[in-house]
Amino acid sequence: MIRTAVIPVAGLGTRFLPATKAIPKEMIPIIDKPTIQYIVEEALDSGIEHIIFITGRNKSAIANHFDYHPELESHLKETNKMDELKGVRELVSRARFSFVRQNEPKGLGHAVLCARHLIGKDESFAVMLGDDVIDAEVPALRQMMDVHEEKQVPVLALQKVSHQDVSKYGVVAGEYISESLLKVSGLVEKPKPADAPSDLAIIGRYILSYKVFRFIEETNADGTGEIQLTNALSQYHDIYGLLFMGKRYDAGNKLDYLRATVELALKREEFREPFTAYLKNLLK
Ligand code: UTP
């Protein structure tokens, strides 16, 4: 059973400057919730009980967001704002939250390694990236946990991307064992389109075993000085990729962030009608 999710949030968020100069990019809201809350809710709805954030400097807003706020809570109670009270309190009570500092942003692989002392030696755990918001009927992580429970192997989330976009992702080679499940035979980080083994990109959800920490330690930093998780994962012999059902937004990319805001707003009961009318009028 997967009970723990590691969520690295120590990156500098340079693609979202100037917003991210003083605010963690994970705290930028989509409508009224910080991006990171969508990811945490996916984890909780999948059955995760312990969330380990890998944080860095300037990220204290994330720790505050996932903690109780007694003054705010008593104010909401006194002013009878019970829905708002439930919204801020319930989220925090649904899991345990731990925070580990990554002293230098030395890459995603290095960020994951920082969680080692909080993971059991026989434990498999999830890694979820704070950038990838996935809108799905069954939470994407739950879909991956179902595969893991059946096969007892590490699982990567995959999505088909356009051929020219492969160079932005880790890309896999492999063989389909069903319509949506692939046995992975190779992984390449950010290949040139001409060298890519497929158009199947790794999206920010992983189920990994404790062994990955040794693999990360054995992985050399790349040309930019970062230890890439994809390179460490190449050492797994038995690893699967799941083409999950759902729509993914890269909230660290400004255009995709705008799409997420519009599409998720249109799914909200309170906004659907007036916002649709507004958009229709705007585009007339
Ligand atoms: P990204 O490369 O998308 O995040 O890493 P970034 O570095 O914050 O963003 P840009 O590219 O400069 O805009 C994917 C995830 O891994 C985390 C990031 O916080 C992000 O959620 N990460 C990355 C770390 O925690 N530590 C690192 O050293 C690198």
Please provide a written account of the structure.
This protein has 284 residues and is an alpha/beta fold. The radius of gyration is 19 Å and the shape is globular. The model has no long low-confidence stretch (mean pLDDT 94). Helix 1 (35-46) packs parallel to helix 6 and helix 3 packs antiparallel against helix 4 (82-93). It has helices at residues 35-46, 60-65, 70-78, 82-93, 108-113, 140-151, 212-217, 229-233, 254-266, 269-283; strands at residues 4-8, 29-30, 33-34, 50-55, 96-101, 124-128, 132-135, 155-160, 170-176, 181-189, 200-209, 240-243, 247-250. The strands form three sheets. The protein has a nine-stranded mixed beta sheet with strand order 5-4-1-6-11-8-12-10-9. The chain has a two-stranded antiparallel ribbon with strand order 2-3. The relative contact order is 0.16. It folds into two domains: 4-252, Spore Coat Polysaccharide Biosynthesis Protein SpsA, Chain A (Alpha-Beta Complex), CATH 3.90.550; 253-284, no CATH class. It contains ten helices and 13 strands. Uridine 5'-triphosphate binds next to helix 5.
